[in-house]
Design goal:
By secondary structure, the chain is mainly α. It has a single domain, classed as ABC transporter involved in vitamin B12 uptake, BtuC, CATH 1.10.3470. Helices cover 75% and strands 0% of the residues. It contains 19 helices and no strands. The longest helix has 40 residues. It is globular. The mean pLDDT is 88.
């Protein structure tokens, strides 16, 4: 085999394995190209707009901290959709699970304010995951036991969750010896003790601001640990880093998102549970024939997906906002669907896709301020990227390349046979 044939064989093998990466990248590049054309029509310079966009997302430590904040809930909702869809349960209810997870984390923090942070933070995260499981339990039962389409049931559960969220932050939470905003002594009842989350001293619907013991550990707090200070405290760069305000905004929440992605990858591709779940997602009838309990697998899949959706809300409360307010985190649950699709329904792909979405959100305001290009362009980029990513998956590039390769080999073989025939004839 000559060198050209070896190189071609390596190239073809690379293409066969890399479509899961090249398709999303090509989709994003095409989305930027078309959006840039629209900017030209608008009268703006697309290069300047994209420069401002990426500067707003990664151009400074503060911008990078904002990107991480926007990315964290998208990682969890993207993983929720990815795991569910891979395993035969299309969870479009991550929005509701996120809201309910935020309520659960806030409720635990408000009810147990004096606990140590080492206990309270894990308790809040666990509560958000459990509430996500509770909120998806009904759709999971209806899908696994009754065969009712999960898209409809999880979608409807979103609106129930959002309305409940809007109500619970309008019910005053009990505070002993506290007057309400108007100076009156509140009349408390069981609703105020056990359900209400509104700060009674505030006129607007919002929960109390959570205590410092609920704050997700920041990069600054980690760098200020005695061990780190003893090792690096004398260096100039360490002192400069500690002074940056953005370092206090960078928390463990996105790190936990990466850990969750690693766990989902291991669960999906390295365990029997993941194998069974993927088998059910590909073909439930064949999985049943293989001896897999399809109903149990669907139920387990849905509950894991719901837990991830609930944790998205908990991470937002503990890592960024530290309270819940109306329009707490609009559409982050729904955005998990395009995050998963652009990520090719792979845990690590969804993580990278979440970073892409988070960067767009973080940099959009700077783009608008610097170049007057409206924030709506970001949503156009997202929509086009989703469209092209889905379109790319419908084209079987492997088959096309294989057919071309076989055609070339057949032509080459025919040419060699013709030459051998001429030689033998002579």
């Amino acid at each position: 085999m000559n060198n050209d044939s070896k190189i071609r064989k390596i190239w073809v093998s690379f293409l066969d394995r890399s479509f899961s990466i090249t398709i999303p990248i090509a989709a994003i590049l095409l989305a930027f190209l078309i959006s840039g054309t629209l900017m030209l029509i608008w009268g703006a310079n697309p290069l300047e707009a994209y420069k401002a966009l990426f500067a707003g997302a990664f151009g400074s430590p503060n911008a990078f901290a904002t990107t991480l904040e926007r990315t964290t809930p998208l990682i969890f909702t993207g993983l929720a959709v990815t795991y569910g869809y891979r395993c035969g349960f299309f969870n479009v209810g991550a929005e509701g699970q996120l809201y309910m997870g935020a309520i659960a984390a806030t409720w635990v923090a408000v009810m147990l304010p004096n606990l140590s942070g080492w206990v309270l933070i894990p308790a809040c995260v666990l509560a958000s995951a459990i509430m996500g499981i509770v909120w998806i339990a009904l759709p999971a039962y209806l899908k696994s036991k009754r065969g009712i389409n999960e898209v409809l049931t999880t979608l409807l559960m979103n609106y129930i969750a959002i309305q409940y969220f809007e109500w619970v932050i309008r019910v005053d939470h009990f505070k002993e010896g506290v007057l309400d905003y108007y100076g009156n002594v509140p009349k408390w009842n069981w609703l105020n003790y056990w359900i209400g989350l509104k700060d009674p001293t505030q006129p607007y619907p919002k929960s109390p601001f959570l205590g410092d013991n609920t704050f997700m550990p920041s990069l600054k707090s980690l760098l200020e640990l005695p061990l780190i200070q003893n090792l690096l405290g004398g260096t100039a760069w360490y002192q400069e880093v500690i002074k940056l305000p953005s370092v206090a905004r960078m928390t463990l929440a996105p790190i936990l998102g990466l850990v969750a992605a690693g766990i989902m990858f291991f669960l999906l591709f390295k365990t029997v549970t993941g194998y069974k779940a993927r088998a059910v997602g590909i073909n439930p009838s064949a999985a049943k024939f293989m001896g897999i309990n399809v109903q149990k697998t669907l139920l387990t899949t849905a509950l894991i997906s719901g837990a991830l959706g609930g944790m998205a809300g908990g991470m937002e409360v503990l890592g960024t906002q530290h309270r819940i307010i109306p329009n707490f985190l609009v559409n982050a649950g729904f955005d998990g669907i395009p995050v998963a699709l652009i990520g090719q329904l792979h845990p690590f792909g969804a993580t990278l896709s979440a970073i892409f979405f988070g960067a767009l959100r973080a940099g959009s305001n700077r783009m608008q301020v610097v170049t007057s290009v409206p924030v709506a362009v970001v949503y156009i980029i997202q929509a086009l990227a989703i469209l092209f990513a889905i379109a790319g998956t419908t084209i079987d590039f492997q088959s096309i390349l294989k057919k071309r390769r076989l055609k070339r080999e057949a032509a080459k073989k025919a040419a060699n046979q013709a030459i051998e025939g001429e030689v033998s004839h002579v």
